[in-house]
Amino acid sequence: xxxxxxxxxxxxxxxxxxxxxxxxxxxxxxxxxxxxxxxxxxxxxxxxxxxxxxxxxxxxxxxxxxxxxxxxxxxxxxxxxxxxxxxxxxxxxxxxxxxxxxxxxxxxxxxxxxxxxxxxxxxxxxxxxxxxxxxxxxxxxxxxxxxxxxxxxxxxxxxxxxxxxxxxxxxxxxxxxxxxxxxxxx
Length: 186
Fold this sequence. Notes:
By secondary structure, the chain is α/β, with parallel strands linked by helices.
């Protein structure tokens, strides 16, 4: 079956989780939703064999990845420290993207108008397809969150929801993988 090129394919996808660190705990708009949706994506990626990359923005000052996210990271997750806003400025991350040879990047994390947006734009500039997961990205303030998301979509990022990502990765019902991943949303 021929599928549209903007439908996610688990063999083409990589999940990039950006800066969900302890320093932002209690400061984000829709924080519970962002963490829950990111956890859903991480669990599904682990079960479906989708590579996961993680960044931490200046962990010396902002702390490590928050425990409720870190506990869901697949064992093979690669973590990159950064001080640049774009994740592509993190030493080793561009090489990791190239090593995985995936052309669909699913984005989750914070903040929509800064690190998520700049990363999305840099990925798009490299010719990669970016899927910005609306319920798994956010910011401290509504205006910045909405403006950042609109700019990414206007520049070519594909808007998505975490449930949409999961079912596109699955492609079909009636499998053991479907039953395991379906439990994440029902």
